[in-house]
Task: inverse folding
DNA sequence: CCGAAATATTTACGCGGGTAAAATTACAAT
DNA sequence: ATTGTAATTTTACCCGCGTAAATATTTCGG
């Protein structure tokens, strides 16, 4: 199949003028039927596709959409990104995926290069605490941006996430009802969610008339399992868990703690002969396959990603005026498995 | 800080001609020192960066590098991609990351749009069996491509992966030496590696004078843990494992089988009181945190990604002539944990 | 079959910057 | 100071396509 270098030549061989061909590529239905037939015939005979760079250079807003997640090696974000990507494709956009890998410099680099790509919009799950707020703000002024997963107050056109103040009490209530009230196992918070979860835990416990017990451990970065494991062992050895039930700030931490308990010979579960109960939060894709399987709260991945995308499209289509920032929180659902 | 719309204006305010500024942006050292100082001074005073689309449109080879993996929700590929991304950035390229999500159509879509991006090169971990070979071939003719993880015979400028015929025998030998000879637990192969591993297993067993036992289970797609779990339970119930030791085709399958064994009340490990031993292959990032921790063969992630990138750079810099296709296999190392 | 509105196509120009070749400059050696 | 040469800078002309305005064509009521 003969390759055609540019639209000019392609227009010539299809017997149509170049601008009409250009119209066709933007919207095949915008040209006369007979014209369209001619073009599509030519498309079968010759190998041609418009040059992406030339297309975008002279257009005010491109068809690309940036997706930025803090840590792609976390299957939670990988799944989320997958969902979002698909929605964008379905809507005729070209998604570009970036991961900050938990590093502030990378996030800023990504935003910088994203800005020069002039994307139609960006879906951003920010690092959170360690994000460069000034940069974020100025970025969001240039590019329609929807935040998801982690909120940064006042930044972006919308925020979509899950409602920690609903999900954590849900779990606390369940744990209290079925056994000893839980301690809360957390690490240094990487984003606002962690803080909210701690507060939600404390409030829920107080509400039920129990004394909250927070086991706070050190550890930086995104190697949550590692932290949960190493610090879990230390916490167990130091008898830092006041009750036999531990609610972890997230599933990955719980997976680490599960490994710690196993190593220390503690049987985890709610049956007889079990020394401890462990619960998580997020319904991580691997939580079904831990031993024992992890009782957790499922975030509504799909609702969050779907709604994020829709919110972004709404912003893109709306004019500058209606820039009413919205925050949407989805409730979690209890996933009872065998660990608690 | 005042925004400057294009290079023309920027050149004017810095008192230099546009083409010289253009040169500067390609290589700051290629202009006279005094010129560079002027430009960098202006860069501090005004806000300007060249338009990406305009830059690339008229250049034969861009500075973008495509990275394509079959399934990004698999932390193995996520880690790999992270590594590769970083190397590309360090070398002054702009990596773009894509995931086929295990679907052939998506892989072809990605390759198609990648081709029109005119990337300097592409690092591709193909789906394997379900890849569109014709498309792959024609793609590789247009774009310098290095395959990694899964090979497609004869396609691309190079292949970099791990040596299944070294790693599997390593594990088989270890398992035979320390207990009952292993069965081999596998699912329908998604790529050539799976086939190689089965053959390597069979040969290794024969070589040691043992009868190979292959437990082949059904299951499509990339939900390996799910398959390992569901089919693992059936295999255990049906007593399909001829010995108490199971070598899984990969870690994710092993994670599923581990969950199955746990549910069936079978204690896994090599100590007394253990009913079975389970080993994996890949050293998946989560394998350290399974219960019990998974004995496996570590693929040399870093070596593979590093070498892939270097191979690609070599191809990019070399001329058309020296297109000697190379295959590089890295050996695995035994990671003894507690499951076998 | 006519004429006006609605569509479709063409004309003409611009976008932002790459890059060969010409012109200028710098620098070292006479 | 002069000259030769290498390094820089300019000149000049593209690239491939978007898009407003002008023109042509179709559609359709009457």
Result:
């Amino acid at each position: 199949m003969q390759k055609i270098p540019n639209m000019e030549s392609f227009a010539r061989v299809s017997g149509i003028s170049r601008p009409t061909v250009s119209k066709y590529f933007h919207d095949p239905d915008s040209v006369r039927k007979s014209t369209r037939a001619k073009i599509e015939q030519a498309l079968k005979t010759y190998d041609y596709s418009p040059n992406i760079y030339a297309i975008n250079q002279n257009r005010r807003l491109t068809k690309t959409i940036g997706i930025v997640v803090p840590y792609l090696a976390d299957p939670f974000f990988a799944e989320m990104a997958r969902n979002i990507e698909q929605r964008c494709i379905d809507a005729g956009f070209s998604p570009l995926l970036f991961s900050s890998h938990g590093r502030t410099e990378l996030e800023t680099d990504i935003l910088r290069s994203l800005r020069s790509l002039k994307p139609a919009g960006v879906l951003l799950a920010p690092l959170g605490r360690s994000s460069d707020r000034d940069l974020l703000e100025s970025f969001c002024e240039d590019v329609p941006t929807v935040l998801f997963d982690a909120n940064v107050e006042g930044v972006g056109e919308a925020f979509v996430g899950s409602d920690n103040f609903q999900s954590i009490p849900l779990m606390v209530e369940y744990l209290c009802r079925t056994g000893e009230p839980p301690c809360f196992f957390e690490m240094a918070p990487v984003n606002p969610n962690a803080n909210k979860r701690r507060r939600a835990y404390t409030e829920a416990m107080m509400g039920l008339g129990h004394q909250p017990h927070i086991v706070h451990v050190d550890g930086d970065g995104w190697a949550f399992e590692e932290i949960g494991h190493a610090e879990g062992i230390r916490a167990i050895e130091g008898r830092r868990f006041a009750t036999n039930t531990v609610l972890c700030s997230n599933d990955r931490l719980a997976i680490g703690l599960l490994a710690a308990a196993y190593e220390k010979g503690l049987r985890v579960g709610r049956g007889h002969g079990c020394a401890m109960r462990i619960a998580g939060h997020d319904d991580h894709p691997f939580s079904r396959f831990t031993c024992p399987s992890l009782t957790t709260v499922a975030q509504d991945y799909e609702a969050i990603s779907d709604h994020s995308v829709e919110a972004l499209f709404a912003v893109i289509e709306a004019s500058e005026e209606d820039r009413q920032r919205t925050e949407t929180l989805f409730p979690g659902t209890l996933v009872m498995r065998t660990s608690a």
Summary: The longest helix of chain B spans residues 301-317. Chain B is about 45% helix and 15% strand. The mean pLDDT of chain B is 92.
